[in-house]
Amino acid sequence: MNKLFATIVLAAFALSSCIKEDDSYKERLPVLPGETIYNMTMTQNSIASQPANAGMRLALLVAEARFQNADDPATEITAEMLSSLTLENVTLRTRLFGTDSKIEAAEGGFKITYSESVQQADGFYLKGSVLVKTNGAEQLKDATSANPWQVVPQELKVIAYSQYGDKQTVNVESGSTTLYSDGNGQYVISLNSIRANIDEKSFYSDWSGTLYLSAEDDDLIYSKCKGKDFKVYSDSYSYPSGDSIYSYDGSQKLALSYQLTDGVFRGMTIIEGTQECSFVNRWEYDTAAYPSGDVRYVWSNNGNTIYRKIYYNNYVYPKD
């Protein structure tokens, strides 16, 4: 298995501090292969979604800038304005993209550049840039399927460190992401052939699919969405899937798929919903090590504690 699986630690999915688990490790053993499938799939989707994440965060920032300048609708939303915009004495550029990040004007939109020294909310470090082409739609709520925002990586690198300090870099080389409003307070996030590979590895991902997001505020104004939940789901036919950055045996690509039903996220953490992660092709993995290629995670909460149930190969963990 690729080294990345052994080294990546994602803060977004490291919920051991808040998940209630009273069962013994012995009861957990039958679902461990499913946990591996889950971790690989979520890492793959998270890497491929970095441009989408940047675009959605920029949408929150732009909407907040327009909201703060509502009394002067003729005011142009500029890169300088977005870079210095504050809320409660906090610079939002820093809050959304990290310290030492940059927002610059670019042809057709904005360029966001990351500082490698800053850990992002999902546990990764980012180096390089993304270009967000707004195509004349000032806010994401004004973008349509015919005229969407487009997000393109520019020498973007996703970096992870293990608890022992080992570094692994994934190069997000090409592909595009489109973002737009469906006109009913819901936003469409479409990943199109996101091509990435682990440093010095010959395998490239080819990840595509669509997710749908809605927020507390239909216009995505940051101050109205701050601290509130986001609802995210995929449909039954265009969910994210494709070749991943992984190879089981070092000689063949490993295709994965990700389906999300009734997802509710608080920050980067899922607190409710069902995630289904799968190996797509049986001939790409060892069926002795993985008696099933599908795993399902069901999340719930009581307001204070997040609960997780794992369903794998007719086993359930933790048991009722």
Helix tally? 7
- Can you summarize the main beta sheet? 14 strands, antiparallel
Task: Kindly give the count of domains.
Answer: 1
From the N-terminal CA to the C-terminal CA, the straight-line distance is 33 Å
Task: Estimate the mean pLDDT confidence.
Answer: 91
Helix content: 10-25%
**Helix/sheet category:** alpha+beta
Query: What proportion strand?
Result: 35-45%
- What is the CA-based Rg, rounded? 20 Å
Question: Outline, from the CA principal axes?
Answer: globular
Low-confidence stretches: 1-19
Summarize it:
This protein is an alpha+beta fold. Helix content is about 20%, strand content about 40%.
Q: What does the model show?
A:
- The protein has 320 residues and is of the alpha+beta class.
- It has one domain (3-317).
- It has seven helices and 16 strands.
- The chain has helices at 3-7, 25-28, 32-48, 50-68, 79-84, 92-97, 222-225; strands at residues 86-87, 90-91, 102-106, 109-114, 125-133, 149-161, 167-181, 187-198, 206-214, 229-233, 241-247, 253-266, 269-279, 294-301, 306-312, 315-317.
- Strands 3, 4, 5, 6, 7, 8, 9, 10, 11, 12, 13, 14, 15 and 16 form a 14-stranded antiparallel sheet that branches. Strands 1-2 form a two-stranded antiparallel sheet.
- The chain is globular.
- Mean pLDDT is 91; it is low at 1-19.
Produce the secondary structure layout.
Elements: H1 3-7, H2 25-28, H3 32-48, H4 50-68, H5 79-84, E1 86-87, E2 90-91, H6 92-97, E3 102-106, E4 109-114, E5 125-133, E6 149-161, E7 167-181, E8 187-198, E9 206-214, H7 222-225, E10 229-233, E11 241-247, E12 253-266, E13 269-279, E14 294-301, E15 306-312, E16 315-317
Antiparallel strand pairs: 1-2, 3-4, 4-5, 5-6, 6-7, 7-8, 8-9, 9-10, 9-11, 10-12, 11-12, 12-13, 13-14, 14-15, 15-16
